[in-house]
Amino acid sequence: MFDNLKKAFSDVSKGFSEKELKEKDIEDILFQLEINLLESDVATEVIDSIKDSLKEKLVGTKVEKKTIESFIKKSLIQYIHETFDSAGSIDLISNIKGKKESGEPYIIVFVGINGTGKTTTLAKIANMLKNSKFSVVIAAADTYRAGAIEQLREHANRLNLKIIAQNYGSDPAAVAKDAVLYAKSHKIDCVLVDTAGRMQTSANLMEQIEKITKVVQPDFKIFVGDSLAGNDTVNQAREFHNHVTLNGSILTKSDADARGGAALSIVKVTSTPVIYVGTGQEYDDIISFNKNTFLENVFEENENELELDSTISLSEPTPEPEPTPAPDESDPFDGIDTDDINEYADLFDVPPPENDKQANELAKKIKKWISDGRPNP
Ligand code: GDP
Question: Does 253 contact ligand 1 (Cβ within 6 A)?
Answer without folding.
Answer: yes
